[in-house]
Design goal:
The chain has one domain: Gcn5-related N-acetyltransferase (GNAT) (Aminopeptidase, 3-Layer(aba) Sandwich). A four-stranded antiparallel β-sheet has the order 1-2-3-4. The protein is globular and about 35 Å long. It has helices at 27-36, 38-41, 48-54, 102-112, and strands at 16-19, 58-62, 68-77, 82-90. It is an alpha+beta fold.
């Protein structure tokens, strides 16, 4: 009889983490993901995503095919040597599959944010 694999031992998809830059076509996917989840994420003023991009604070998790599986917006408080999450959102196909793994995001942040 097959036993279910415990969640911590199931193979997880591989995500590519990237910072969106200006004129990146994937911004439309991020906005669509936010729109589908805005009831829980709340309002985001017009131009807020562009501001995040300009400051290097819009990070996406990409599937193997290059589509947006989730995104993170954050602010850095250098005076306090800390970062605060504004939005952390995953799409339905990525939920429960490690896309928003906080340890991985923190490791990425420490490596890439000055």
């Amino acid at each position: 009889m097959n036993q279910p694999i415990p969640d911590d031992r199931r193979p997880r998809p591989s995500w590519t983490i990237a910072v969106l830059t200006s004129r990146d076509a994937r911004l439309q996917q991020v906005v669509a993901l936010w729109g589908a989840n805005r009831k829980t994420l709340g309002l985001f003023p017009e131009g807020a995503f562009e501001d995040c991009i300009a400051q290097g604070r819009l990070v996406v998790a990409l599937t193997g095919e290059g589509t947006v599986a989730g995104y993170l917006t954050f602010r850095v408080q250098r005076r306090l040597n800390s970062a605060a999450i504004i939005h952390l959102c995953t799409g339905p196909v990525a939920r429960g599959k490690g896309c928003s793994d906080l340890e991985r995001l923190v490791a990425w942040h420490e490596k890439h944010v000055n």
